[in-house]
Write a structure and sequence with these properties.
alpha+beta, C8orf32 fold, 14 strands, about 270 residues, 6-stranded antiparallel beta sheet, peptidase activity, about 15% helix, Protein containing transglutaminase-like domain, putative cysteine protease, protease, Bac_transglu_N
Length: about 270
């Protein structure tokens, strides 16, 4: 599938901010699951571009105020191709020549957002007792979706996997982080994925999150699983960034001086081109 995507983020402030610094992971990279045909970013400042240790394209910019509004826009065309492998739905995500990235084993380490408490390990262990096969991973994902029920606006960006697990509800971010936490606790490298999910029936689109699980660290083979939709990633998934948790793959992060009374509005449009 080929998609035309437009993502607009608008911050409004009751009192003007004096200065703000932003870090964006809003530019998808081409890789084994997609080819970026064109992409643009529009921000009120000069962009600098770099690659982080996970392979993500990272842009930074600074805005000098005072200003009551800040608008960030991103968009372009991405061609998505799900993995096709004789041995299963796996894909190799080794870095291209000349690029250095962290080892898949780095994703075994926990973070404050993805630390697994003992009750989470007890919950997940039976699903993978016979081995970390794709059916077993999908069963774990479905178990997590039943344990952490999807409920809009029930958590926020600072909610940890253990908090969402105890609460019993959350959004795609929480379900993905619980999956990541459980897999790591049972010895499987796993990473958080931010991106988009094309649902033609949705009246309002939002950014999405799912999990990559490493099935062979030496060969850098991964399997991508969407807990929220109970499926492997497919032609509906457009990837933006990966990281050890939400904070390391967040589309937009920033700090500011001043600017009380913040209001955030996000508009996302995804148009299939074929």
């Amino acid at each position: 599938m080929k998609y035309k995507i437009h993502h607009k983020t608008v911050y409004r402030y009751a009192e003007p901010f004096l200065r703000s610094v932003h870090e964006l992971r809003l530019a998808p990279r081409s890789g084994p699951l997609q080819a970026v045909q064109q992409w643009q970013l529009s921000v009120p400042g000069n962009l600098s571009e770099a690659r982080d240790g996970f392979g993500n394209i990272v842009h930074s910019f600074t805005v000098a105020g005072p200003a009551h509004t800040l608008v960030i826009e991103a968009g372009g065309v991405v061609d998505v191709t799900p993995p096709v492998d004789a041995h299963g739905p796996f894909f190799c995500d080794a870095p291209p020549a000349g690029e250095t990235r962290v080892s898949p084993l780095y994703y075994l380490g926990g973070t404050p957002l993805t630390a697994a408490k003992p009750e989470m390990v007890r919950f997940a262990a039976p699903y993978l007792a016979a081995g970390a096969t794709v059916p077993a991973l999908l069963a774990l994902a479905n178990g997590i979706a039943g344990r952490v029920r999807y409920q809009s606006d029930s958590t926020d960006v600072d909610t940890s996997a253990s908090d969402a697990f105890a609460l019993g509800r959350g959004v795609c971010q929480d379900q993905a982080q619980v999956m990541v936490a459980c897999c790591r606790a049972l010895g499987m490298p796993a990473r958080y994925v931010s991106g988009y999910f094309h649902d033609p029936a949705a009246t309002e689109l939002a950014s999405h999150a799912w999990a990559d699980v490493c099935v062979d660290a030496g060969k850098e083979l991964w399997c991508s699983i969407d807990v929220t939709h109970g499926c492997l990633s497919d032609a509906r998934h457009i990837r933006l960034a990966v990281g050890r948790d939400y904070r390391m793959a967040a589309p937009v992060r920033g700090i500011r001086e001043g600017g009380s009374g913040e209001r955030l509005a996000v508009e996302i449009a995804i148009l299939p081109l074929q």
